[in-house]
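In this section we walk through a basic example: taking a raw amino acid sequence and producing a predicted 3D structure, encoded as discrete structure tokens. The instruction is simple. Fold the sequence below.
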Amino acid sequence: MSEDKHEEERRSRSTEAFYGRRLGRPLRETQAEQMEEGLSRLKLDLEAPAPADIKTLFAKQVKEVRLEIGFGGGEHLLHDSRVNPETGLIGIEPFVNGMAKLLAAIAPQRGGEDWPATIRVYNDDATQVLDWLPDACLDGIALFYPDPWPKKRHWKRRFVSQVNLDRFARVLKPGSLFRFASDIDTYVNWTLEHCEAHPAFEWQAKSAADWHTPYENWPGTRYEAKALREGRRPAYLRFQRI
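The resulting token sequence is shown next.
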């Protein structure tokens, strides 16, 4: 595909999958400054062609690259970067306050280190990044506690869909995992049905307990904590790219 055609398709899909609100409480001055600087240093530039080797997107050499869609306040992304220092992580979060929280947590302190060398971010629709990335370049995709859109008339807004699973299949390497976590039964069932019907994905559960077993080195998130307080049992699904 030519670069012009690729850019045309990316722009045509610019708001395809994001329906949530963009801003909660107004940012404090320090948060706004950290946000501006952090995005200037870490945000992916989708106006430029994606590199053939996306490991070169990072300021230090990494062995693999994974994508987290909708990282919320960044709890899992931060934990992942600490326990996997040789993994490049791309985090996507359109909600301004969530992005601000992550960037505040990783902003260099006075006299401290620079911005993280293994994290890149994007603050808009995840489909833009998925369409920009080259084929078979990712070692994993995570979608944890996405907006469940509980009303049936809104289910079409759920991020897990045939078209987005097609996107995942294109950018994931064979053998890599798409991980999905949620405490909303209808969305868990929705995801199982869509992934089971997709020829590129295979559910990795081997026993009845598997889908209620957290991932290895799972730190938990504030959404999960709320679900547990309110009596909802999260599910942790793993789908392998065939």
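Looking at the output, two observations stand out. Residues 1-15 have pLDDT under 50 and may be disordered. The CA atoms of residues 7 and 150 lie 33 Å apart. In the next section we compare this with other chains.
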